[in-house]
Design brief:
This protein has helices spanning 38-49, 81-93, 134-154, 168-173, 188-191, 193-206, 225-238, 265-270, 288-295, 306-310, 314-320, 333-338, 343-349, and strands at 8-9, 15-16, 20-22, 54-61, 97-103, 119-120, 130-131, 158-162, 211-216, 243-247, 278-282, 301-304, 331-332, 356-357. It has 13 helices and 14 strands. It has 359 residues and is of the alpha/beta class. Helix 3 packs parallel to helix 6 (193-206). The chain has two domains: 3-326, TIM Barrel (Alpha-Beta Barrel); 332-359, no CATH class. The protein starts with 7 loop residues before the first strand and ends with a strand.
């Protein structure tokens, strides 16, 4: 049986029916109070129906002041549980694992979307951002854990902690952004403290049978490749999470740091022994051949973003045709509507150069 169609069993016991995960994608479709909309429900359940073995929500903020974009699906209040219960059930009914991504935008929270000043690991004048106090850091940790508990109550199979793309946990991890002098700044161990406190707290609160992943990304926002691989190795050795989701921006490129150009960015991760932890990667995986090339390495499953927007049934297409290539862009608004995108999501996609053309 080809690897691409083989199921995966995670350490927690959850079973993923194939090797395709829907990337957690900004779509701006839910209500401004963070409650689920019918449009977001339709978009995600359509992908589960299209064959994604794991369907992940957009980044869902764990505090009201962590909102990162308009129409963001929230999980910071019990008022969100009803919508998440509906969404988790809709995804699971299609045979897909249902996972919510836990998020806080930190300095990347637009001021017009939140009350008060954006917060981060440190004061950052450029973003008009103030540093969190120790008490607020502890509250942030507790709120990530509380959000995971809500996800479990809602019926999700698990959660992914968003530690990538310059959001608040990256802001703590990054020596370029984090200038703290307490236990949450300075050494890599200190800068990673909050991330590990959150993941270990989620594992303790939600149990050993709850799927738990972490998203990390190298290179941008001051993240050094060696530091990210060091964090990966610690997660692997401590064996408290089920998978690492590495967002590489482009799986096929070489690192930007000169000292690491001896091998591809992907190889820097696939050369690690992941032991009990599963590995998925994202970045320019767009065709059936791309999927095969990635899965021919030590990557356990692929994470699909852009092509999942173009084809809700990308996994089924690839499983049926080893030469499948996505519809070329730009595509029309009507095309995207037929693929489950609402007007709000189509408007957001116009920010991607050359993706949407007027009908």
């Amino acid at each position: 049986m080809p690897k691409i169609s083989q199921p995966i069993q995670f350490s927690c016991g959850a079973k993923m029916p194939n090797r395709f995960m829907l990337a957690p994608m900004t779509n701006t479709q839910s209500h401004e109070d963070g409650t689920l909309s019918n449009e977001e429900y339709h978009w995600l359940v359509m992908r589960a129906k299209g064959g994604f073995g794991l369907t992940m929500t957009c980044a869902s903020h764990v505090q009201a002041n962590g909102k990162g974009f308009p129409g963001q699906l929230g999980i910071f209040s019990d008022k969100h549980i009803e919508g998440h219960t509906r969404l988790a059930n809709g995804i699971k009914t299609q045979g897909s694992l249902a996972v919510v991504q836990l998020h806080h935008a930190g300095m990347r929270s637009p001021e017009d979307l939140i009350d008060g000043q954006p917060v981060s690991a440190s004061n950052i004048k450029k973003y008009n951002t103030r540093s969190l106090s120790l008490e607020e850091i502890h509250q942030l940790k507790d709120d990530f854990i509380a959000a995971a508990i809500r996800a479990k109550q809602s019926g999700y199979d698990g959660v992914e902690v968003h530690g990538a793309h310059g959001y608040i946990l990256t802001q703590f991890l990054s020596s370029k952004i984090n200038s703290r002098t307490d236990n949450y700044g300075g050494s890599l161990e200190n800068r990673a403290r909050l991330l590990f406190e959150i993941t270990n707290g989620i594992r303790a609160a939600c149990g050993s049978d709850f799927l738990l992943g972490v998203r990390l990304s190298p290179e941008r926002f001051g993240m050094k490749l060696k530091e990210i691989t060091t964090i990966c190795k610690r997660f692997i050795d401590e064996d408290q999470i089920d998978f690492l989701d590495i967002s590489l921006w482009d799986c096929f490129k070489y690192p930007e740091e000169n000292e690491h150009k001896d091998q591809t960015l992907l190889e820097h991760f696939t050369n690690i022994d992941f032991k009990n932890v599963k590995l998925t990667v994202a970045g320019h995986i767009r065709t059936a051949k791309d999927v095969k090339n990635i899965l021919d390495t030590k990557v356990d499953f692929v994470t699909i973003g852009r092509t999942a927007i173009l084809h809700h049934d990308f996994p089924k297409q690839v499983l049926a045709n080893s030469n499948f290539e996505p519809t070329p862009t730009p595509v029309t608004k009507n095309y995207l509507h037929n693929e489950g995108l609402s007007d709000k999501f189509v408007t957001y996609m116009k920010r991607w150069e050359g993706f949407v053309v007027e009908n």
